[in-house]
Amino acid sequence: WNTTGEGADRIFKLLRKEKIGDGGNGSISIYPLAATHPEPVDQFTMEETKEDKRLSQLKSSRGIVHKMYLYTQTNRRPPFEVLQDVENQVEIDFNFMCNLYGAAVIAAVGLGTNSPVMVTASMLISPLMGPILGSIFGFTVRKWDLMLRGFINEIWAVIHTIFGGFLMGLILSPLAAKGLNWPTDEMSGRGTLRNFVAGLFFALASGVILGVDVSAANGNALVGVAISASLLPPLVNTGMCLAFAAISSGLYPIGDKTDVSGVENDPTRIFHLVADNENHAVEGWPIEYQVDIMLQLEIAGWSFALYMMNYVVIFLVTWIVFKLKRYGPENNLAERHNSWKSASLINLYTAGSLANLGVKA
Question: Considering the entire predicted model, what is its pTM?
Answer without folding.
Answer: 0.71
